[in-house]
Design a protein that fits this description.
The protein is of the alpha/beta class and 232 residues long. It is built from seven helices and 15 strands. It folds into two domains: 2-125, Rossmann fold, CATH 3.40.50; 132-228, LytTr DNA-binding domain (OB fold (Dihydrolipoamide Acetyltransferase, E2P), Beta Barrel). The protein has a five-stranded parallel β-sheet. Strands 10-9-8-12-11 form a five-stranded antiparallel β-sheet. It is elongated.
């Protein structure tokens, strides 16, 4: 069952969403909000699996609201305009619904979210999992954990640097990424960097060398690195 919150300043739109959700057996519509600020406040206290979010709202549009969420939440953007599609794509939205939308189109979007969640949960249940599933480019991308070199924080995104492959960009926090990674295989070495322990070639004063890349070693993380390498 997917726990859902819907935020839209139009009462009729919320009523349509509520009716559609009531006709889908894997959806639990937890709450609806007309005031985006109230919705944001609730979500940061009580996270859900999926957010159905109108973009065109007074005082705070849906894109700005989504950027302020403290946790990684799947989102389906809803709007009357098509020119927000690129921005929605950049924010790794599951889908983008243009009003007025049919039940079939709505069902297609939430089924996509359900598929994302099912694959993610299946991967997390496997204690010996050798892969991560990362949401990017409207897809759930499978990454071999032992091919990850390091992870770099960049504003609201993470850049995942992978051995001999294209760098993957995902909208995630460092905290949520660390929760997905094997505890002893990765270490945070800086406010903006997580590295694979077995990829470290050398530790030099304030830098860590990985694949000829120098990664800064933050002062607050130096002791953790020393413990990993048995230094006193």
């Amino acid at each position: 069952m997917i726990k859902v919150v819907a935020i839209d300043d139009e009462p009729i739109a919320l009523k349509v969403i509520e009716n559609f959700c009531n006709n889908i057996d894997f959806i639990e519509l937890d709450k609806t909000f007309r005031d985006p600020k109230e919705g944001l406040k609730h979500l940061n206290k009580f996270p859900v699996d999926l957010l159905l979010l109108d973009i065109d709202m007074p005082f705070m549009n849906g894109i700005d609201l989504y950027k302020q969420l403290k946790q990684d939440t799947l989102v389906i953007f809803i709007t009357t305009r098509t020119d927000y599609a690129v921005e929605g794509f950049n924010l790794m939205a599951v889908d983008y619904l243009v009003k007025p939308f049919t039940f079939d189109r709505f069902n297609q979007a939430v089924k996509r979210a359900n598929d994302f969640l099912n694959v993610s949960k299946q991967g997390s249940r496997d204690e010996d999992a050798k892969h991560l599933f990362i949401r990017a480019d409207f897809s759930l991308i499978k990454i071999a954990i032992d091919e990850i070199l390091y992870i770099e924080a960049l504003d609201d995104y993470l850049k995942i640097h992978i051995k001999d492959k294209k760098t993957l960009v995902a909208r995630m926090t460092m905290k949520s990424m660390l929760e997905k990674l094997p505890v002893n295989a990765f270490i945070r070495v800086h406010r903006s960097f997580i590295v694979a322990v077995n990829r470290i070639q050398a530790v030099r004063s304030k830098n860590i060398l990985i694949e000829n890349m120098e990664i800064p070693l933050g002062g607050n993380y130096a002791e953790n690195v020393s413990q990993v390498f048995g230094k006193k």
